[in-house]
Amino acid sequence: MSEPLLAVDDLVVRFDTPRGTVSAVDGVSLHVARGETLGLVGESGCGKSTLGRAILRLVEPKAGAIRFDGDDLAGRSRAALRSARRGLQMVFQDPAASLDPRWTVGDLIAEPLHIHGVGTRAERKAKVRDLLRQVGLPPEAAERRPHAFSGGQRQRIGIARALALDPKVVVLDEPVSALDVSVQAQILNLLVDLQERLGVAFLFISHDLGVVEHLCDRVAVMYLGRIVESAPREALFRRPAHPYSRLLLDAAPSLDANAPRRTPAPASNELPSPYDPPSGCRFRTRCPHAVERCAVETPKLSDLGAGQHVACHRAGEI
Fold first, then answer.
1. Residue from 187, 183, 185, 182 nearest 172 by CA
2. Using one digit for the tens of pLDDT, what is the confidence trace for 52-92?
3. Residues in CB range of 191: below 8 A, 6 or more apart
């Protein structure tokens, strides 16, 4: 297997708060290959967005490695990150909050080009118009401000800005969760089309399993700061190996008439406090299959074959 384009190894992000220290990301490892889409799923508060921001060093990790295209980003100074960020960009959840209302759309999209000294003024203007066409907006949209556009159109502007520097990886943090369902489908189809034409890789962060099933090649499941399962899309949706993955899938509606019907296993819905997570397996307080070993030993990701990995002591039994 060739070296992954993006590899995260044992990444740790902690926040000190008045209530105590929170390990939002606790020893996470994952990788994204060239041109693929990795979905990162889990309930709100599990650390997905923090992980995405830490990869771009928008929040600082306490430990671990972030390797992008062969370079370690975790140890770089902020000044040294500039060249790497040309190839690693982000689309945020709320386009209204991520687009400065005082700027025109053209200036917003051209900002990364200006910061990195790409092209002349005329070349940047032409690039902006081409990017608008690529995301399905007319070139004259460059002269207007973000408030003149709908939520879906603003997200297209955010995507255009992320693509301005021809990145190799784009981190998409819940990019369609704030949009109407019909608009979500349009943005997802746009992302599929852009990936096919540009060959860009996506780290797609979402709590919506239906969206992830439609878009992603592989899926990583996160719970209370840790990855509990990773697998190719079909394996995860057809044969989930971790009880938490099963819980998520049982709770999600399916549009696939051929999908196997599952009887939900009983599980507690009470979320543990992130300030004092359970010992051993963090899911054990909600897991119907937990045994004594789960309380005293932290499960490691084990290889089930065919690209599927699970952190569960009883994966072979249940």
1. 187
2. 999 999 999 999 999 999 888 877 877 778 888 889 999 99
3. 159, 172, 175, 202, 215
pTM of the model: 0.93
**Coil vs helix vs strand at 126:** helix
Rg over CA atoms, the chain: 20
CB < 8 Å & 24+ apart, contacts of 135-141:
135/159, 135/160, 135/163, 135/190, 135/194, 136/190, 141/105
Residue 251 C-beta-side C-alpha neighbours within 13 Å: 14
Task: Copy the structure tokens of residue 6.
Answer: 């993006």
Asked if residue 133 lies in contact with residue 193, where contact means CB atoms within 8 angstroms, the answer is no
Which amino acid type is present at position 313?
Answer: H
In this structure, what is the dihedral angle of CA atoms 12, 24, 40, 163, given to the nearest 10 degrees?
A: -80
